[in-house]
Design goal:
Blueprint lengths: L1 H23 L9 H20 L9 H23 L8 H26 L3 H19 L8 H27 L11 H11 L9 H19 L10 H20 L3 H22 L9 H21 L1 H19 L7 H26 L8 H9 L26 H14 L15 H21 L3 H22 L9 H21 L4 H21 L7 H25 L32 H12 L4 E3 L6 E5 L3 H11 L8 E3 L15 H10 L6 E4 L21 E5 L4 H10 L2 E5 L11 H8 L4
Parallel strand pairs: 3-5
Antiparallel strand pairs: 1-2, 2-6, 3-6, 4-5
Length: about 750
């Protein structure tokens, strides 16, 4: 409801600004200068994007794609207005020519969202999208029709304002009547109940549709050029880079929606869009795209399309259009300015619109448009070799819970692109003319930083450190070498910086010995690339060494890319990555690793209870720190917990219960004052030190009772943690000690427990 209100407030605000702009545009001095209007639209676009991102994933409606679509539209629109306001588009028709591709795209995109909204019974959102589409259509036709003037465009935007006023009136009536009176479509309580009924029917990735509409946006720039509507100009860079920036955001959100393959696809298309904008910026230098890089990119797209076909054949076939686009770019000396790639861009525009409709409809509709997923599952069910990963824990990391799916496949693919980009030999006199910077900086740098951040969120400390370190190196080296900053000069300071980086990477190479063989070769071959940078800095680079080093690193990265995709798609690792080259004696050396179960699930607590009843020892979260526990009813487990912890005599184990009813058989052994005090004090973090007595024998610890407390007293409490008390309800009283070796700091994260006691529990 909050986000619906935000949308119905922000849309009329932006439309009111545009209505004022178009009503006053015939004047010599408009009420809102272009720069001011552009800045205001950018601010509203940021707020709309926030509203779309904050929308619940489980109850996603058409509100998400509408927010993100409109945010992208106003971002590109506002950027062009600011550029025009600064005099960068001096001719009379330059501003409209720059706006034309975006207006055409968003007119169609908003119309598609309106149609799907009506089909999915979301009339208010559908009317809002239709009115915005009509206003954009009027602005699109403005220079081509003498019967349409700026007032017609302003009237379209006023229609959006009227819808906003209708929603505001409905909310006021609902508030004043305490929910008894509500205009149709404005009852947020009814909408919330409807979303709760429909929540399970939604698409797994509600952000796929906005990503597909953004593909339409950057493809429309070249469609308009091929159809003769515009010529490629500087103003179109705003649309290309807006699409690229938003697609990086969609990539992150797709990882948040646990959709690895579509997230990787949007990462790939964002690189294409960034490189196209870079070419437009430097079109006076006739920029050239490296053919080997484009061939490698087409192979990456083809592999991703193959894996995506197993999840959704429609999406997999859709990606084949991008394979064709990369091949067309590689075969065309003119690059994006040639008619061949522009013709493929038309195909991208059309197929993106069709697939976007499928995703938009499947976000909300119960009767979904089939994408072929069932046929693939039925086909693979007959195979004994390949079995798709499924289930709620599909992307759950081994060490606990993460809100993001694994992004290693994208990070490896970016390494392939960055390494093949380094093979390009450009003109030293015009270094920017060879299009390398987008691939090295965006793919090797920005997207690899994204992969490192996601890896860190998933508890992969070494992998995240390596990805972030390599991303920084790609950005620095790519900008220095391929932007003309490096030039032909070489100096000692450059060599020292590279040596420092190599020392950091040496540590990563050493640590990867304890991870797996694939990671060891991945980090080791990058050391060869760094060595080529160093040899180049000291004028000692052998002929062909840099080419060989980057190709070897690219091939290793490609294998890791395939392994990451296969491990995230199929059960069992189809492509081996090897075990650790060296094995630590403490962490992970046990024959069977202990299970890691998320505490937020009741099934996990039940499984831990079964382990405790069977004599196991477990590390669990509490209201204070992580603790190591054993069931009192299993004396062998109590003794094992004492030994594994190397418990010091001055730090005895304590006793936890979930209710005083568990001590009811021994109530006569406690004084009434003490019993009343325990009832008043618990549950809480307070432990009561109680004189040891016969009541301890009622807990069933037998001889192991000597490990709990001291000879004269026992510390006991009821924890103020629902997970812990539920576990004790299932198991009975437990003995507790901190989940860390004696003398070390307390553990506050499950990774710390695993690192310190992983082979002991």
């Amino acid at each position: 409801g909050r986000f619906m209100s935000s949308l119905c407030l922000l849309c009329p605000t932006g439309s009111l600004l545009l209505a004022v702009h178009f009503y006053s545009s015939p004047r010599a001095a408009p009420l809102l200068p272009s720069t001011t209007l552009g800045l205001l639209l950018l601010l509203l676009a940021a707020l709309l994007a926030y509203a779309g991102i904050r929308r619940s994933l489980s109850n996603a409606s058409l509100l998400v794609p509408l927010c993100l679509t409109l945010s992208a539209f106003w971002s590109g629109y506002g950027a062009i207005l600011m550029v025009a306001g600064q005099g960068a588009l001096p001719a009379a028709g330059d501003a409209h020519a720059a706006l034309l591709p975006g207006l055409a795209t968003f007119t169609l995109a908003l119309l598609l969202e309106a149609v799907v909204g009506f089909l999915c019974r979301e009339p208010l959102l559908a009317l809002l999208a239709a009115t915005l589409s009509l206003a954009s259509a009027h602005e699109l036709a403005l220079p081509f029709s003498s019967s349409l003037g700026p007032s017609a465009v302003a009237c379209g935007h006023l229609g959006v304002c009227l819808l906003g006023g209708y929603f505001a009136l409905g909310r006021i009536l609902c508030f004043l009547s305490k929910g008894k009176v509500a205009l149709p479509g404005t009852d947020l309580a009814e909408r919330k109940a409807q979303e709760q009924r429909w929540g399970s029917a939604g698409s797994t990735n509600p952000f796929a549709a906005p990503g597909l509409l953004l593909n339409m946006l950057w493809a429309s720039v070249f469609c308009c050029r091929l159809l003769g509507a515009t010529t490629l100009a500087l103003g179109h860079v705003s649309w290309l880079w807006t699409a690229a920036t938003f697609q990086i955001g969609i990539c992150v959100l797709s990882y948040r929606a646990m959709d690895v393959l579509m997230a990787t696809a949007f990462g790939f298309t964002s690189v294409l869009s960034f490189s196209a904008g870079y070419c437009l910026l430097l079109q006076h230098q006739e920029p050239a795209l490296p053919a080997p890089l484009l061939v490698a990119f087409s192979i990456l797209f083809a592999v991703l399309a193959l894996f995506l076909s197993l999840q959704s054949p429609v999406d997999g076939l859709y990606l084949l259009v991008f394979v064709t686009y990369c091949v067309a770019l590689a075969c065309s000396p003119g690059g994006i300015f040639a008619s061949g790639p522009q013709g493929v861009a038309v195909a991208i525009f059309v197929t993106s619109a069709v697939v976007a409709v499928v995703h938009l409809y499947n976000v909300r509709a119960r009767a979904k448009i089939p994408t072929g997923q069932g046929a693939v599952k039925a086909l693979l069910a007959r195979s004994s070799l390949l079995k798709l990963r499924e289930g709620p824990d599909l992307h759950a990391p081994y060490l606990g819970y993460s809100r993001y799916a694994d992004a290693e496949a994208l990070a490896y693919a970016c390494s392939v692109l960055a390494s093949f980009a380094l093979t390009a030999t450009g003109d030293p006199q015009a270094p920017l003319a060879t299009v390398v910077i987008p691939w090295v900086v965006v793919a090797g740098g920005i997207l690899k930083l994204l992969g490192g951040s996601v890896a860190f969120a998933r508890g992969k400390t070494l992998e995240s450190s390596a990805f972030i370190l390599y991303a920084v190196m790609w950005i620095i080296w790519g900008l220095a070498r391929f932007s003309g900053l490096y030039g032909t000069a070489r100096n000692f300071h450059t060599a020292v910086g590279i040596v420092a980086f190599m020392l950091f990477n040496s540590f990563i190479v050493f640590c990867s010995l304890f991870l797996n063989t694939a990671w060891f070769f991945y980090s080791l071959t990058f050391m060869l690339v760094a060595l080529s940078f160093l040899l180049d800095a000291i004028h000692a680079l052998p002929a062909g060494y840099d080419l060989a080093a980057t190709l070897i690193f690219g091939l290793v990265s490609f294998y890791c890319f395939l392994a990451a995709l296969s491990s995230s798609t199929f059960e069992g690792c189809c492509l081996p990555v090897g075990g650790p080259v060296l094995q630590l004696g403490a962490v992970g050396a046990a024959a069977t690793k202990c299970p890691h179960l998320p505490a937020r699930k009741a099934s996990s607590v039940k499984r831990i209870a079964d382990i405790l009843r069977s004599g196991g020892t477990c590390g669990i979260p509490t209201d204070t720190v992580y603790v190591l526990v054993a069931a009192c009813s299993r004396p062998d487990a109590v003794e094992r917990a004492h030994r594994s912890k190397r418990q010091a005599q001055d730090r005895p184990m304590s006793l936890w219960i979930s209710s005083l009813k568990q001590l009811e058989p021994a109530k006569h052994l406690f004084t009434p004052l003490l019993w009343d005090f325990m009832e008043a004090a618990w549950p809480s973090p307070i432990s009561l030190v109680i004189p040891r007595g016969e009541w301890v024998d009622f807990l069933g610890m037998k001889d192991s009772a000597k490990y709990v407390g001291t000879p004269g007293s026992v510390a006991i409490r009821i924890p103020d943690c629902s997970v812990t008390t539920h576990l004790i309800d299932l198991v009975g009283p437990i003995v507790v000690t901190s989940a860390n070796p004696t003398g070390e700091a307390d553990t506050t994260h499950h990774n710390q427990v695993y690192a310190k006691l992983g082979d002991q529990v």
